[in-house]
Amino acid sequence: MVQTKAREVASRIISRFRSRVLEWEHAAITTLWGLIVLGNPHVFSGRAFAAFAGGPALWGWVVFLAGTLRIAALCVNGYMAKPTAIVRAAGALTGIALFAVLTLGFLFSWTWPTGLAVYSVLGFFGLFSFYWSIFDVAVPDGHDGDDT
Known about the structure:
Elements: H1 2-17, H2 21-39, H3 55-77, H4 81-109, H5 115-138
């Protein structure tokens, strides 16, 4: 019984992964970004990170936890879409904000590294993640009340 339920949960997560792949990507990038900053706080000594008040420990932990929460919400969402859509939307907004701050930091540092292109595009596509998560509040995918 438990094994059957676990398979059902795993199957639902896998079946929704494709439609959530952009959200999974952003969650992974956010989580890993936080870990990298925690593991290498000297990255904040560059001019591009002047916009980050609070230092690398604060930003590393906040971003790592935000990414981890987003991954958890996506896992739960794989089984129950509607209850976590608001959490997914909040995750998308924090991702957009993070990528916007990174983009602006690189832009106003006048160093213009390749990260300027990468983070601006990630932030732009974060808008789609936000839209799709909000849409799931109104119409949760695959949850038509049929529990068969």
